[in-house]
């Protein structure tokens, strides 16, 4: 078929572009990959100054409190820019995901709404939890994004439908809130989201063409968050912004989504057109990639319960709070935390063929050691 026949034929614009590029030996995937990154970065980068201006004019600011690590009022609607960038770019470059997972976009919109409401008005915890349950049920039941097997972790293999749904909903809720909890200092939640997306994106890329839409989603998240970090880490207070609950909930949700999709790839579904992959440690690798929010959340809950306090009572026992107590700056604290937990991911990859329970035990122990290094250093300092 000639180029002229393609142009004049009954093909969509994207089909015509793909056919022409393939005919000259260029894959449309790499074009999408580059354009999605550039566009996601630019949309977020360009939209944030307008959000900052509106936030200052309408006094939509994060007020410093007892647990705050900042001293002045800062705009906290950066999550709106992240949503805008991710939603637009995913709809254009990874539209297959919205065909395959019908409730994915609706879930993001609901999280945007409740996040903005919370950032502006500060909602009660039970209202946010109720919405998180609704969103998790939508994506788990409506789009069938479930953890179907634990691959022998704790002796559990395939889960029946009911247990799979319950466990998956709880996983979504925990990770949404866990990412919210690590968003306590400049750059931490954003930088960790970039690294998680990078790890999952590279994994999806290595797993073949069928997973390319998830690769593009990961790249879109990276582009949007990098643009946000430019403002979040800026030394100039006039352009600084926080992602707020809007951003942390959306990123937590998307990373939970990509993690569960990653695990699901290695489950044999006996579908003819689907390629089959084998990685028995898939759920443990997913835990390793998301180890920071998981360990930080577990740690503060254990501390609160040991002190006979409510596990939902806010305090300053998070890993980043302990590093700040050492007199370390936000940027250095973020760098130290990210570096240590990246080391855990590297160790997990190196030991990925170990028995799952042993590998998980090593990861959790290393995670808690990282959580208590600042405590030990603080005691030595005194």
Structure notes:
The structure is a single chain. By secondary structure, this protein is an all-alpha fold. It has one domain (3-266, 276-381). It is 70% helix and 1% strand. It contains 16 helices and 2 strands. A two-stranded antiparallel ribbon has the order 1-2. α4 (78-93) packs antiparallel against α10 (212-232) and α11 runs antiparallel to α12 (282-289). The longest helix is centred in the N-terminal third of the chain and has 30 residues, at 28-57. The radius of gyration is 21 Å and the shape is globular. The model is unreliable at 1-7 (pLDDT under 50).
Number of helical elements: 16
* Shape descriptor: globular
Rg, Cα atoms, Å: 21 Å
Q: Enumerate the spans where pLDDT stays under 50 for 5 or more consecutive residues.
A: 1-7
User: What distance lies between the first and last C-alpha atoms, to the nearest angstrom?
Assistant: 77 Å
- How many structurally independent domains? 1
Q: Tell how many strands the DSSP assignment holds.
A: 2
> Percent helix among the residues?
55-70%
The largest pleated sheet is described as: 2 strands, antiparallel
User: How much of the residues is beta strand, in percent?
Assistant: under 5%
Succession of helices and strands: HHHEEHHHHHHHHHHHHH
């Amino acid at each position: 078929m000639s180029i002229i026949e393609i142009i004049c034929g009954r093909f969509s614009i994207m089909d015509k572009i793909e056919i022409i590029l393939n005919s000259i030996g260029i894959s449309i995937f790499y074009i999408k990959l580059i354009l999605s990154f550039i566009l996601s970065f630019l949309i977020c980068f360009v939209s944030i100054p307008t959000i900052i201006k509106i936030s200052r004019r309408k006094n939509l600011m994060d007020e410093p409190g007892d647990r705050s690590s900042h001293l002045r009022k800062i705009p906290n609607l950066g999550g709106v820019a992240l949503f805008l960038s991710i939603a637009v770019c995913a709809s254009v470059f990874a539209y297959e995901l919205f065909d395959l997972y019908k409730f994915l976009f609706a879930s993001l919109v609901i999280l945007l709404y409740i996040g903005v409401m919370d950032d502006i008005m500060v909602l009660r915890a039970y209202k946010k939890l109720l919405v998180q349950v609704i969103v998790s049920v939508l994506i788990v039941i409506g789009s069938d994004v479930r953890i179907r097997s634990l691959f022998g972790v704790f002796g559990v293999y395939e889960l029946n439908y009911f247990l799979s749904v319950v466990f998956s909903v709880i996983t979504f809720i925990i990770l949404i809130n866990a990412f919210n909890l690590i968003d306590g200092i400049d750059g931490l939640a954003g930088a960790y989201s970039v690294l998680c997306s990078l790890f999952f994106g590279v994994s999806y890329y290595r797993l073949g063409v069928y997973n390319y839409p998830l690769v593009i989603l990961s790249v879109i998240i990276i582009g949007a968050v990098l643009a946000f970090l430019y403002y979040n880490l800026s030394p100039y207070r006039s352009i600084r912004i926080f992602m707020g609950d809007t951003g942390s909930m959306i990123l937590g949700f998307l990373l939970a989504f990509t993690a569960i999709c990653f695990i699901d790839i290695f489950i044999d579904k006996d579908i003819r057109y689907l390629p089959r992959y084998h990685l028995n440690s898939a759920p443990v690798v997913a835990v390793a990639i998301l180890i920071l929010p998981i360990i930080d959340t577990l740690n503060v809950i254990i501390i609160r319960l040991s002190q006979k306090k409510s596990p939902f009572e806010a305090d300053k026992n998070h890993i980043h709070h302990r590093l700040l107590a050492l007199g370390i700056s936000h940027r250095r604290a973020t760098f130290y935390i990210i570096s240590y937990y990246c080391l855990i991911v590297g160790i997990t990859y190196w030991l990925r063929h170990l028995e799952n329970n042993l590998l998980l035990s090593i990861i959790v122990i290393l995670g808690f050691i990282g959580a208590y290094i600042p405590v030990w250093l603080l005691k030595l300092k005194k």
